[in-house]
Structure of MFS transporter:
Amino acid sequence: MTPKVTQNPTIDVAKLPTGFGRLWTAQTVSSHGDGVTHAALPLLALTLTRDPMALAVVTAAGTLPWLLFGVLGGALVDRWDRRRTMWVTDAARAVLLAIPAAAAALDVLSIPLLSAVAFLLALGGLFFDTAATAYLPDLLGRHPAQLERANARLRGAQTAASGFAGPPAGSALLALGRSVPLLADAVSFALSALLVRSLPAAPRPAASARESLLRQARAGASYVFKDRLLLGLALRPAVGNIAFLAVETVLALFASERLGVGAFGFGLLLTAEALGGLLGAGIASFLGRRLGTGTALTCTATIEGLAILGLASAPNPYVAGLALAVCGAGMGATMVLAPSLRQAIVPAHLMGRVASTSRMLAMCAAPFGAFLGGWLATAYDIRTPIYAAGGLLLAMTAVTATMTSNRRVEAALHMAASPNGPGRPQSENPLREDAPALQQPTEVPAC
């Protein structure tokens, strides 16, 4: 018999708390700065070298913090004040970006410096993203529909800001000077820090004083690996990052040498991907309701693989832009559905560790993708890593389809919503003044 998911009817799904608006604004501002840097960094690297392996070093450096500190970072976030972690991290990243900006202005910018900056920015991103992921369920009371709605808004804004508006702005600002896009991102981090600091503080999950940090980190990782649904949700972005980083490493070079586009054209290609991502985030909830979350995730992963194969064979920038837009749509929907599901079923005291473990698996795989892309482009052809990425995505989809099936998703939501489930009751929301009193839940059909 198909499990029923219990939901609290007193929660207004259409109404998100005021605090979410400030969080949404902060992440939108910061994402716009990230989009500027996302376009500017590879273009800055191209002004220093045309070696694919050197470009791969810069790309890989931005993924190494998750390999080195991923699980421990999640354990620390579960001990720290999550709001404070977010605003301090963004303030530190604002200061950090002044270093390469000054180096660019003084004409002493180098690949090692860009790699170090990419590493430290990603280290800050580790703590900010993990804290934000753990903070959101507290803000929304772990209600699945509200989490999906909030994540759709966050993902849509992030895609629009970092992909649609940011890359062309980064390319344009780079024309004004090599330090200008870096300073713009620094300002965005500073504004984000101020907004996050105004959010209500979340209660810090109680941790056992007898448990060491390493033991707590191991408990979070074990929780992911022992649950086939969570493991499936984690494996898809892990394998996907190998593919996407292989593409990202050579994309600027591919656009320049095979598609014949300059810096502004490269920014437009990234914008096309972002437009698709915006569409995908917008229709994610519809896909989840229509197909079921598990089936929707399998479909979006298949679309991503086919779109990357289309990019590899693109004869001109227009076809390449369409392929990137389709791939972005699949990614946008996936990045709404998967995190929302994870936030709804994972206990609050483990949220930071589970989120960081899942993200660590994805980010640890990314350096392999970056170097794989550089090696395949050097040894064979610039299109080879893109073809390999498309094939890898399709193979991953086939392997994980049963791990994230509708049946597993429905069972996990049913358990999380039950009184004895692993999560907090959905009406318990310490950050909302309008949180309703606990009432007897009613059954509604699952997707």
User: Anything to note?
Assistant: The chain has one domain: 17-201+212-426. Residues 17-201+212-426 form a domain with the Growth Hormone; Chain: A; fold (CATH 1.20.1250.20).
